[in-house]
Amino acid sequence: MSTQKIFAGARIRRIRISKGLTQTSMADGLGISPSYLNLIERNQRPLTVQLILKLASVYKVDPEELYGEGTASLASLREVFADPLLSGELPGEHELVELAEATPNAAAALVKLYRAYREQAERLTDLSDVMASGGGTVAAPRLPANEVRDVLESRPFHFASLEEEADAFHKVLNAGDDLAAALKNWLQQEHGIAVRVLPVSVMPNWRRRYDRHSHRLFLSERLSPADQLRELAIEASLIRMRAAIAAEIDALKLSSDEARRLARFELARYAAHALMMPYAAFLNAAERQRYDIDVLAARFRVSFEQAATRLTTLAREGASGIPFFLLEVDNAGNRIRRMGAEGFPHARFGGACPKLAAFAAFAEPGRILPEAAEMPDGERFLTISRTVDGPHAGFDARPRRTAILLGCDLSFVGQTIYGQALSRASLETPLPIGRACRLCERQGCLSRAEPPVTRPLGLDEMVTGFSAFDFQ
């Protein structure tokens, strides 16, 4: 019998009512006072082992019935009430427990209704995107790109089998200080594939292209050395780790071939990072250097973006790093990608708040901006923002520039090099941010771009606030 305290008031009450007993008669049968039974039914006293045994012997109650409706329904209700529209409605966890225990069927119906609402919202989003791009039809509940994104963002960004394969492959390569040369040699020796870097005039639209007829792998000269190395590692991983990647894709349970193809690319890039930055060596260096991304990038001869992305994958059981999440946006606010060892939930940290340092980074390209931030629900984060540039652009082309926001819970700030850049005042009073303007109810925000959907607009001609959208 578990020694964990069991609060089962609603279930005891249901059992009593189903047997037509009053509190007095049931208390007599259990050998306790009616007042004590009343406290149990109001979850102010836990069930003891003796009471559970007495219930089983006197009223033929299965002890398993007293261990709750299971964590699944409670977890599902947490998901519902974590939605921005409902997050402020319940004062604490106890009401969720009571809802799950006292009315399990109603709780299940509520979860079902919420999931139907979320699915319809996703469908409308996808339909809007299709119509904005010139029309068409939506053939599935989610577009393949959105499905892959949602699946990868809903789980820890760590694939143990790919890590093991990458470690084994790295030992086979015996690369020393020149992984690129080792990969080229392996591709040539094992598969007869020659690697060539082509000028923009010959390959204007591709980063990498493999010609199956001539067995040649072409890389664009527009890529930096670090990006060329990643493309080499992706091609080699797709060959060497084909079975492991396929198994991980199957485990994601995607609904279409297009989604599986997109997932294959994402997992190949994951495998490439694992090959370029072997897990144990990278974690050891990260901890010793206090997660200094620039130092890690130089040591492993990778880019800032690659090192930052690798930090989000350090979730190996028994050997994990700080649980970082990562958000990449462009200067128009479009989300490019989002990932993390702890995920990057919409409900807690949506990433669309204009006050995030990721957007301020565009005004100071290349500079790292550490910041402490606080959500309306009190969650606090350390964020590290910096712009990253895409492939080299020619004179007549506009370069691609995005911003990366790497973040973790503020409790880890002392383990990072970036904590020393934050003042005591900023740690004690972090920057107040929100999920997104449409979901944020902070009053007087100078950065507000849209009114919240959860509050009516304040249409008072005699009073105007600092926000462009006053609300009640």
Automatic annotation (TrEMBL):
Keywords: DNA-binding, Transcription, Transcription regulation
Cellular-component GO terms for this entry: cytosol
Tagged with keyword Transcription regulation: yes
Top-level taxon of the source organism: Bacteria
Domain HTH cro/C1-type: 12-66
The family this protein is said to belong to: Belongs to the short-chain fatty acyl-CoA assimilation regulator (ScfR) family.
Protein name per its UniProtKB record: Cro/Cl family transcriptional regulator
Organism: Nitratireductor aestuarii
Any GO MF annotation of the entry: DNA-binding transcription factor activity
